[in-house]
Task: inverse folding
């Protein structure tokens, strides 16, 4: 897992599910690094992104 992925994962440990945009701003990553981190986490089935009426949310997969 990349350093960026670890950073995003650590945020999710304490706050899951979380709004995707909130998580992105909490991570402080550039667009390119954010994209790489979230794709890596979802590809490895560590997180999932879901769309609800309230918006897009990222959560830890148990």
Result:
């Amino acid at each position: 897992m990349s350093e960026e992925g670890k950073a995003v994962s650590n945020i999710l440990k304490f706050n899951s599910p979380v709004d995707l945009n909130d998580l992105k701003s909490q991570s402080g990553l550039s667009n390119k690094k954010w994209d790489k981190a979230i794709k890596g986490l979802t590809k490895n089935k560590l997180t999932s992104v879901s769309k609800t009426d309230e918006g897009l949310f990222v959560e830890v997969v148990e």
Notes: Residues 31-43 form the longest helix (13 residues). The mean pLDDT is 92.
